[in-house]
Amino acid sequence: MRTGYIYDESYFWHDTGTGTLFLPSGGYLETDVFAEHPATKRRVNNLLERCGLMRELHHIRPRKATLEEIQYYHTPEYIKRVKYLSDTTGGDAGDHAIVGKGSYEIALLSTGGALTAVDSVMKGKVDNVYALTRPPGHHAESDKGIGFCLFNNVAISAKYAKKKYGLERIMILDWDVHHGNGTEKAFYDDDEVLFISIHEHLNFPTNSGYATDTGEGNGEGYNVNIPLPPGSGNAAYLQTLETIVKPMADEFQPQLIIVSAGQDPGMFDPLGRMRVSAEGFGKMTEIIKEIAQKHCNGKLVFCHEGGYSNAYVPFCTLRIMEVLCEKQTDVEDPFAPGTNGYPDKVFEHEQDAINKVIKVQSEFWQNLLPKVGQ
């Protein structure tokens, strides 16, 4: 497979300042490593170089998104605010959406990376592509940034694909541990975009991502939230993909698939409470790749979102990249023993959560209805 890889050194220069986990330091919070830190993604690059997989990838330079393209989703007033903060003192563009000096231009390049990725697969330059975008985007709403996200890279790229290539069926899968609230709002009334968010229930944002939020108007049934309970691991995620995502994709028949790839469901992430391993991310990618090959000639775009374990995110991302390009390295997951023998199975409360989604969405999707005799 020809797999494209998109990144720019500028992505690592987006400065979110000092902090402690996801909060600004001060008072009783001693300065520590801020969660959204460039090291996480820089180390993805380092591991790809160290193990040799980087040489197997097709390197593609991102371009900057234009102001018009950013306005496919964001309001002019919000864009001006981000630029003003970037040009002056920096600050928060909404809710935990830190803008540093020069962040506006870097955010344009991050969104441009997602747009470049869409162009690359639609024009057949590569079969699939991984864009190591930063700052991330899936929390950003039309008029404010949220949760480290400034411009919604994936939402803008999907709207771009509709406008430029006339696509009528785009599937967005968001497996970041946090609900993709910004992308949800971008397409809540749109029946041409099937948005599926698999996330830890009520982690962040704290009042969104309910299974019963199914869209409105023409988009009813095209918004799919799959809130899994804390502690869900490989088995629960794979069960979700097999019993919900695959049947929906078979019915929807997407022309392009975009993945909001947050590796924060990883078992060592400081901002998540899930137990997905590097191997699990690889198996999840195998399923998504199979769907893409079945329905859209393999047209598959990955855009990096969250993932805050500097040590573990690179190994999770490496497994994804190995599956995309069908090249196996000699890298073993050094943290695999960290599961401590925890059973990798679908527990009853996890199956209950999955079944609830199936029950809600079966009103809209024939493929989710029980088969005769079941």
UniProtKB/TrEMBL annotation:
InterPro entries: HDACs, His_deacetylse_dom, His_deacetylse_dom_sf, Ureohydrolase_dom_sf. SUPFAM superfamilies: Arginase/deacetylase. Residues 37-322 form the Histone deacetylase domain. It holds the Pfam family Hist_deacetyl. Belongs to the histone deacetylase family. This is Acetylpolyamine aminohydrolase. It comes from Siminovitchia fordii.
